[in-house]
Design a protein that fits this description.
Length: 223
Amino acid sequence: MTTLNWGILGPGAIALEFAKAIKEVNGSICAVGARNLEKAKAFASMYHIEKVYGNYEEMLSDPGIDVVYIATPHSSHYDFIMKSLINNKHVFCEKSITVNSKQLREIVAAAEQKNLVVAEAMTVYHMPLFKKLRHIVDSGKIGTLKMIQVSFGSCKKYDVANRFFSKELAGGALLDIGTYALSFARYFLSSQPYEVLTTAKKFETGVDEQSGILLKNSRTKWR
C-alpha cells in the first residue's frame, strides 16, 4: 500500500487532533504551513514534521506533498482547495468545505478534470453509531422512515473578534455546526430534496445566530 505524504494547512486545534490520528495509523506528515511561522514551527516540533512553511502558497507548491489537509477558516477553503488542485494534490478539507454550492461545483469540476480526490471531513458519515443507525433504517425494522428531526447547537462565548461571529470569515451557526445536522438528515435520503425552506436569526455582526431548515422529499425517496 502506498503511503501518502500529508501537508497540513492551518495548525489550529482541530489540526492537532488530525495530526494525532494520522500518527496513530503510522501516516506520514511531511509539512505544515501557517501565516505565523513560529506557530507552524511549534506544531511541527510536536509531531516531528520536517518541513515548515510560513507561507501557504509555498507549501502548496511543494512537490513532496501528495495530499493537503485544510483546517483554515471556511472563507479560505475555496482558494486553498483550488490552489491545491492546480498543484496536483488531493484534498481533505474541514467542514464546511465551501461557503456556497457554486464554489463546490467548481471544485468538483476541477478535481474531476485532474482525476484528484477532494473530500470533506464530515464525521457523521464515518462514526460507528450512525452507521449502525443507517443499517437499522435500511433493514426496515422500524418501518418506513417518514420524518427526521435534528437539533444541534453549542454555546459560543460572546466575542465579535472570534471567527464564529465574523461574516468575512464565513462564521455563523449553519457553516460552523449546522452542517452536522444537515449531513445527518441527508445521510438517510437517497436523492436531493426537491424543496428547501429556511429561516434564520441574525447576530449583530450579520451572521446567523440560529438557523432552521426544512427539507422536503418524496416519501419514496427515503431510504
